[in-house]
Amino acid sequence: MLTLYIANKNYSSWSMRPWVLLKQAEIPFREEMVRFDSFDEDSKFKQVALKVNPAGQMPVLTDGDFAVWDTLAIVEYLAEKFPERHLWPRDAKARARARSVCAEMHGGFAALRSRCPMNIEASLAQAGALAWRDHADVRRDVQRIIGMWTSLLEEHKGPMLFGDFSIADAYFAPVCMRIMNYALPVPGHITDYIRRVCALPSVAAWIEQALAEKEFVEMDEPYRTGR
Predict the structure, then answer these.
(1) Which of 150, 207, 147 is nearest to 173 (CA)?
(2) Which fold has domain 92-210?
(3) 76, 17 Cβ separation under 8 angstroms
(4) Domain at 2-85, CATH from 3.40.50.2300, 3.30.70.380, 3.40.720.10, 3.40.30.10
(5) What residue ranges in the chain does DSSP mark as E strands?
(6) Where in the chain are all domains bearing CATH 3.40.30.10?
(7) Residue whose C-alpha is closest to residue 17's, from 148, 170, 153, 155
(8) Closest residue by Cα to residue 71 from 27, 19, 117, 141
(9) Where does the chain hold its CATH 1.20.1050.10 domain(s)?
(10) Which helix (H) or strand (E) element contains residue 60?
(11) How far apart are CA 73 and CA 8, in angstroms?
């Protein structure tokens, strides 16, 4: 049985990606939630993380006594283990493009990630407006996402980025959360795509469970001092 170790659903964008992929692809797995307390070496979070992978980070996928960490490695492992699920697009060029945009998300968009950290429970339109006004790098990141998604949706005729649901949609699901919760300005067809992503059973389940956590993790709340 596969086991996916994740952090808090409300905050952990990295954990969201493989969880949504597994759920949407109907791949059986067991979930182990490791809640944030801190990243200090003696914290409960770090101690549990270090037991399952030497990097001491989440998420981690274990397959028996074999551990895979880093979200790109996890999704590639799943794609190879379950080829019949077609987690990447079937066409070779589309597959290469999907890997490209996922790698771009994995290593880029630092401004959007740092200025607008994922917080599903919160309504952060004011913070989003300030980030948009004051930080050109946030505007550049969002414009790149708009251009990328527009091109892919037009080429592959939707409803998802490569037609059918794929790893790419799971990878960008946390970006949908950020754009929505920070009310960042995007055109209507991008809003429509975000709504379709949120309506996916896996994403809807993640959102519902994130809202049910009702925890306040101070280090993940740069815009609030409490609830």
Answers:
(1) 207
(2) Glutathione S-transferase Yfyf (Class Pi); Chain A, domain 2 (1.20.1050)
(3) no
(4) 3.40.30.10
(5) 2-6, 29-33, 60-63, 66-69
(6) 2-85
(7) 170
(8) 19
(9) 92-210
(10) strand 60-63
(11) 21
Strand partners, 133: none
Q: Which of 222, 5, 203, 14 has its CA nearest to residue 107?
A: 14
Q: pTM here?
A: 0.93
Spatial distance between the Cα atoms of 198 and 70, rounded to a whole number of angstroms: 24
pLDDT tens across the length of the chain (227 residues): 999 999 999 999 999 999 999 999 999 999 999 887 766 777 777 788 788 888 878 899 999 999 999 999 999 999 999 999 999 999 999 999 999 999 999 999 999 999 999 999 999 999 999 999 999 999 999 999 999 999 999 999 989 999 999 999 999 999 999 999 999 999 999 999 999 999 999 999 999 999 998 877 766 667 766 66
